[in-house]
Write a structure and sequence with these properties.
alpha+beta; 22% helix; three-stranded antiparallel β-sheet; 5 helices; two-stranded parallel ribbon
Length: 196
């Protein structure tokens, strides 16, 4: 299971794709070639299917096939599997040919239920108004990390700083809940790195 860096293909980044040194698809191909696992799964942002990146992504798929794998890929939404945020990702599932010939198959999971409401996960830790982008009764926007990615679609997630008069930033615990982390999770680092 691998998730190469998304920045080369993200709509929020520079979109350099295969020209970005962080393109991890070649490393995944090399790892699969070296280890020959029964299954290999790679996930990334939907941007891999954008017109300017799709040829590169399809070369990655073809590379897996040339190594003796049957490959399917599809876009799945985390909210369909119980994560309380709209996080869409493209998943490629490579099934080794001998496994497929002996009865193995791509048995994609079916969405079990709707996502929990953010109201049950945010719990308004800071005691003041919830950010307006995080409306009760529906999953939140995708959270972005990193000092240069303090927002997603203009929605800030860093804590305890007023943004305009009507909203505040999410606390680290709120961000963790929106990613399905349990409340008793102990973070190994202090702020500001915890937020990333």
């Amino acid at each position: 299971l691998g998730g190469p860096p998304c920045q080369p293909f993200s709509a929020a980044g520079k979109g350099e794709g295969a020209d970005d040194e962080r393109d991890g698809f070649p490393a995944i191909l090399a790892t699969v070639d070296a280890l020959r696992p029964r299954h290999a799964i790679a996930e990334n942002v939907p941007g891999v299917l954008f017109e300017k990146h799709s040829a590169h992504y399809l070369r990655f798929i073809a590379g897996l096939e040339s190594l003796g794998y049957r490959v399917q890929y599809r876009e799945l939404a985390a909210a369909d599997f119980g994560v309380p945020q709209f996080r869409r990702r493209v998943w490629a599932w490579a099934l080794r040919d001998d496994v497929a010939r002996s009865g193995g198959s791509h048995n994609w999971p079916q969405p079990p239920h709707a996502a929990p409401e953010p109201s049950t996960t945010i719990a308004c830790d800071a005691g003041n108004a919830m950010p307006s982008a995080y409306r009760l009764g529906r999953p939140s926007p995708t959270l972005a990390g990193g000092a240069e990615s303090s927002h997603t679609n203009g929605r800030s997630v860093f804590p305890n700083q007023r943004i305009r008069d009507e909203m505040r930033r999410l606390t680290p615990d709120e961000c963790a809940r929106l990613q399905s982390c349990p409340d008793d999770w102990v973070w190994p680092e202090k702020m500001p790195k915890t937020h990333k």
